[in-house]
Amino acid sequence: MARVPVMQAVVDVLKSEGVDVTFGCPGAAILPLYAAMEDSDIRHLIVRHEEGATHMADGWARTNGNVGVAIGTSGPAGTNMITGLYTAQADSIPILCITGQAVSSKLHQEAFQAVDIVEIAKPVSKWAVQVKEAALAPWIFREAFRIARSGRPGPVLIDLPLDVQKQEIEWDPEIDAPLPVQRIEPHPPRVRRALDMLLDAERPLILAGGGIIGAEASGQLRELAELLGVPVQVTLMGKGSFPEDHELYAGMTGIQTSQRYGNQSFLESDVVLAVGARFGDRHTGALDVYRGERKFVHVDIEPTQIGRVFEPDLGVVSDARLFLEAMLDEARQRAVGKRFDDWVGRVGELKQTLTRPDDYDSVPIKAPRVYREINEIFPPETYFVTAIGLYQIWGGQFQRAHQPRHYQVCGQAGPLGWEIPAAIGVKSAEPDAEVVAVVGDYSFQFLVEELAVAAQYDVPFVVIMLNNEYLGLIRQAESDGFGMNTEVDIHYDENGTDNVALMRAYGCSGCRVFEPGELQSSIEWARKEAVATSRPVLVEVMIEREASTARGTRIDSLIEPEPVPNP
Fold first, then answer.
1. What is the DSSP pairing of strand 68-72 with strand 435-440?
2. Which residues contact 536 (CB under 8 A, 6 or more apart)?
3. Separation CA 293–CA 299 (nearest Å)
4. Distance of alpha carbon 72 from alpha carbon 26, whole angstroms
5. Which H/E stretch holds residue 528?
């Protein structure tokens, strides 16, 4: 075999693993990799901050299910990536972070920008490794992709000392291929028991978590639900795995990102089949109320997830898609048909009665009205990204999602600033798709510099900002828990930061909306402007400061109406 630069072999591996774009920032300790990429057909977007690169890789991976790649040099480049690694780990997203490193002989001498990034990254990654021998590099990269995709997907990090990057190895890409990823099949007796428990129930629910989306199992979920006539709820990470306009859709349960009818449907259920869900605390609320007298079947690809939060009545270790296919086969063999019509009717009744208003015409604009416009204007195939704060709660409560991978939210880690780079990643994965980032005024400013990336590479998307210039969720937590109101003011005039001017500074455009009647025309203008300019366009919506509709509510109190502000 021919001898080639080792980084050329690494680039060959990236290409064969399906990587067509990377996000990163070159520096002295990673230049050999960049030199190898120069003549490849892998696109590269140069970022303004390495955390932004990780979130772009994250958005790219959430969109197509492949492993997103972020690249940085040594020292602070790696430490800047830690938040992105944590976000991907928390939400089970497969990304690969590649860092440069000082030469091997200097690592023990506190050389310039030499940091033990492997040890730093280990708690927030599935695997973190430094390549110590050049001949190992392509095999470590192959293993990294396998690990990122296997079991519960997640992030990996590879650290490349500069001297290792400069070497040559024997390599022939024509006889190389990705390592196989084992799919975990369910144990048949547990599949049969799970079906028995569903069929013995009077008011069963299927709970679809993010694992449904990761396993590409939305079709099988719908098929099983329709075959048996069982209502389906979704978690925040599972939003989009089941169409929200379907007769069997039963909403979301939780203390914040939930529907009132979803909570009540859950409270009336007697058996819950949870597939690819991890029972996060914002979903369960008080565990004694959540568990109640109902029985639980917990299906997860990661064995250590089962029993982590509470002991289920039945645990099944399996890939979500393979489990649902096995359930379908078993149900068909038994010739099982629909049998829960009364329960479906009850869920439908709750959906009609336990609702939240969204048709406010008052000024200042109320947040639910913004989501009403979003639901009416954008088609089902639109990709949405959103992050953490009151607007994540509103999104869970009011925004509809109909297709998997089209509603993306950093659910567990909740890093502010995630939306702009994530939207760039989504658009890079689906260049012809319409992409919308729903942001808050505070989160927008965390990684706002990544707008320059979108402007540089002509990456258009719409940004809808809910601006209460108030840090509402932080202020709410302070007042509720501590009776204080400290350091939660970020505005310098009556409207806060001039975000439209900020957009213009990055070569983009935007508008500010004060009246609910201006929402539709402003959003439609932004959609056209994004296409015309190939740049992000902002619609900044000035909403009311007080937002009692978003307050968390215990799952056991949802029978009573929630307080809402006067129109």
1. unpaired
2. 420, 423, 437, 451, 454, 455, 459, 460, 461, 462, 463, 503, 508, 530
3. 19
4. 6
5. helix 519-533
**Verdict on whether the full-model pTM lies above 0.85:** yes
CA atoms within 13 A on the CB side of 38: 8
Maximum C-alpha span of the chain:
75
Reported as a single tens digit per residue, the pLDDT across 376-404 is 999 999 999 999 888 899 999 999 999 99
The residues spanned by each domain of the chain are 3-173, 188-353, 367-550
pLDDT of residue 547: 47
Domains 188-353 and 367-550 share a fold: yes
Which pairing describes strands 3-5 and 168-170: parallel, antiparallel, or unpaired?
antiparallel
End-to-end CA distance of the chain: 74
Containing 233, the helix (H) or strand (E) segment is strand 232-234
The Cα–Cα gap between 484 and 554 comes to: 23
pLDDT value for 491? 64
Q: Which residues contact 16 (CB under 8 A, 6 or more apart)?
A: 173, 176, 177, 178
Residue 73: burial class (beta carbons within 10 Å; 0-12, 13-18, 19+): buried
Which CATH number is associated with domain 188-353?
Answer: 3.40.50.1220
Question: Chain centroid to CA 151: how far?
Answer: 18
Q: What are 402's two structure tokens?
A: 């109909």
Say if strands 21-24 and 462-467 run parallel, antiparallel, or are unpaired. unpaired
Q: Which CATH class is domain 367-550?
A: alpha beta
DSSP notation for 95-129: EEEEEEE--GGGGGGT-TT---HHHHHGGGSSEEE
Instruction: Give the strand order in the sheet containing 407-409.
Output: 407-409, 383-386, 435-440, 462-467, 537-542, 509-513
Taking alpha carbons only, the member of 60, 29, 63 closest to residue 44 is 60
The angle formed by the CA atoms of residues 314, 316 and 320, to the nearest 5 degrees, is: 130
**Residues found in the chain:** 567
Q: According to CATH, what is the number of the domain 3-173?
A: 3.40.50.970
